[in-house]
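S1.2 Input.
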Amino acid sequence: MFNYVMRRLLTALPVLFGVTVINFIIMKMAPGNPVDMLVSPKLPAAALEAKRIELGLDAPAYVQYWHWLKNLILHGDLGYSMITYEAVGKMIWSYMGPTVLLMGTALILGVAIAIPLGVISASRQYTKLDYLASTASFLGISIPNFFLGLGLIYLFSIQLKLLPSGGMTTIGGNGGTLDVLLHLILPVIVLTANVAGRNIRYVRSSMLEILGQDYLRTARAKGLKEFLVVNRHAMRNALIPIVTVLGMEIPILFGGAVVIEQIFSWPGIGQLTLSSIMSRDYSTIMGLNLVAAVVVIMANLLTDVVYALVDPRIKYSYQGESGS
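S1.3 Output.
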């Protein structure tokens, strides 16, 4: 397993390199640059040109990319923001905590809801519980995040005045744990509804496929209780496709948090991404894209590792092959 993980990490390096090249090309193709954000009637053209030279924007694109890549490889340095002049790595790290708190809570709650409801829906097919779970799943998938978020703000913040409408802490407050939890409730509800809605259907479909297998009929014929048949024998074998889907949720949440963080003014990666795009902050955008690529690669690697933990038949040999 260790050799397999190390090989996967090594093969990820060319992928990361390709991602940075593509991101840099797309970023350079987009109109505008950080200096354009400084344009004002009182600012002379000579000052703008001096600013371009200071930021290194006068150099050819391949030279700019080479300097960025060299600093990353030799020093682990993502550069400095062209707008705030802060270290990009430090900025991303400071914004990462709120995003991990938000998406981690939503993912855990979404899975905790989806798996039991999916199992119940499959084991009691065509009953009222099945229809109820399926309806909840369709609602979670079909309602747009921004619409649900704005609706919750209107109901709980404006009308009922029970929960804060945005931010991570109350302005002027002590910023304690309870305050953070109150601000966390609404965005977590939105993300959890979406995660649970998607995965209820996946769990139900996976369980229905397993519940029709011959070995489960044999277990029932031997007098084994239905609870044990479903939760001990069927559930473990149904986890493989479920693990695949859950592994995909991590990068999806990381990207989807941009919308939710903007609606709820949550000070996470989403806010930083949007502000960096609006200000054409090349250094920060490159750093954020690299972090996003790393998240996707690590999520896929984690999924492969969990495969082996869930199903002992899966072995990762030295040659990188898996067998049962």
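S1.4 Remarks. Residues 318-324 have pLDDT under 50 and may be disordered.
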